[in-house]
């Protein structure tokens, strides 16, 4: 028996440390965009079997950015 699998892919979120802005642009809020995407996935009528992140999670690769991303991902 074959079962279809629904996969959601999120890519290149480039999360920055809390209270920082991507490339220093005050109107850019990568955390807010990721939060919006996660909320959208959580509201889907048919939930994905798997959510995968590809590309850059953190913009600068610093621990603060990864900790900030971890907080955002936990609600998924």
From TrEMBL:
Record-linked Pfam families: Metallophos
Domain spans labelled Calcineurin-like phosphoesterase: 7-68
Superkingdom, taxonomy of origin: Bacteria
Name of protein: CpdA-like phosphodiesterase
Annotated organism of origin: Candidatus Megaera venefica
């Amino acid at each position: 028996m074959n079962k279809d699998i629904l996969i959601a892919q999120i890519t290149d979120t480039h999360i920055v440390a809390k209270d920082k802005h991507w490339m220093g642009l005050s109107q850019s809020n990568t955390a807010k965009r990721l939060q919006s995407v996660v909320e959208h996935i959580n509201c889907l009528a048919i939930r994905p079997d798997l959510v995968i992140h590809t590309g850059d999670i953190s913009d600068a690769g610093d621990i603060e950015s990864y900790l900030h991303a971890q907080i955002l991902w936990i609600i998924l």
